[in-house]
Amino acid sequence: RNYTPEEEEDSEDDNYVSDSSDDEDKRPPEQFDLSSSTTIMLPPRNYTLVHEDGRLHKRDNFTPMSFGMQRIHNNAAPEPVWVQTQNARWMQGTTEVVVIAHTVPRDQMRAALLDVQLAPRQVHVASRATGQVFLHGELEERIDPRTSTWLTDGTHVTMTLVKANLQIYDAGKKGTAADTHWHRLLTTDQYVERGMVDADYSELPAEHRHKAKMSELERKEKKRQEELANECALCGKDVRFFCDCRSGDKDYEKPLPEGWKDPRLGFCDPIFDGVNYDAGKSAQLQPKPAPQPRPYAGGR
């Protein structure tokens, strides 16, 4: 068949459309362009924040705090927030972790039908008759199985795990001595985003709470003294950040914030205070002469 010029253009257009549709089928899915956005993309979560009865909690849609910060409660317990995973629903305090095995069938929620085992680093919930495992795994931290308990009321299987809290007595964990907060229940679980669940330190020993309080007061007092020392007498602002009263004075050197470590400002790291380093001399790079034999000292 002979095509007219108009029919040839139409056929070429039809072929072009069909080719583009094939390319679209093979084209990978489009990605979000975040080059000019400030949105933080978080990894997909396999847990949800819920209430004790499983209803979705308002904090499940909570944006984590910046720089991995977390709200800490030293005086009173925070609002209870439960973390629900595939096999368990759990909540923690300072000294205990309460776990609900929500996958146990209703007809199996009798103490005689369940095999519950609690070990220092392991929890196990299974059926005695069939051997079906409802919850099993290695715990994130150690517990005291002698004081930990479990019960069932016919609707829930609840375990109360008493934390060993050995880290508060471990002098090697400097800076996290009082960190009794678990970031996940089992070692196979995904870490809960830091800041989504508040840390409860209200039941720590009195000496630890007193030490934390004194450290916080010392930090605030140090900050206040620094602000007073760097307060501008003209505008009252901090000369390190906001004051521009002397920007036109060439003889004035604006102090830098802490962290620049400019030796001209008299910065001294307390770790290396009083330590004098010897840069050495070029003679130390020369090869040393071969050792001479020792003189004869007598004897055999």
Write a concise keyword list for the protein shown above.
300 residues; alpha+beta; 6-stranded antiparallel beta sheet; 3-stranded antiparallel beta sheet; 2 helices; disordered N terminus
Characterization of the model:
Helix content is 15%, strand content 16%. It has two helices and eleven strands; from the N terminus they run H-E-E-E-E-E-E-E-E-E-E-E-H. The termini are far apart. The chain has 300 residues and is an alpha+beta fold. The strands form three sheets. It has a six-stranded antiparallel beta sheet with strand order 1-3-4-5-10-9, with no helix packed on it.
Please provide a brief summary of the model:
The protein has 300 residues and is of the alpha+beta class.
The quaternary structure here is: single chain
Low-confidence segments, ≥5 residues, pLDDT <50?
1-25, 27-32
Ends distance: 118 Å
Order of strands in the sheet with most strands: 1-3-4-5-10-9
Which band does the percent of strand residues land in? Answer: 15-25%
What is the topology?
Layout (H helix, E strand, L loop, with lengths): L4 H22 L21 E3 L21 E2 L8 E3 L4 E4 L3 E5 L13 E6 L2 E6 L5 E6 L10 E4 L4 E6 L36 E2 L5 H24 L71
Parallel strand pairs: 2-11
Antiparallel strand pairs: 1-3, 3-4, 4-5, 5-10, 6-7, 7-8, 9-10
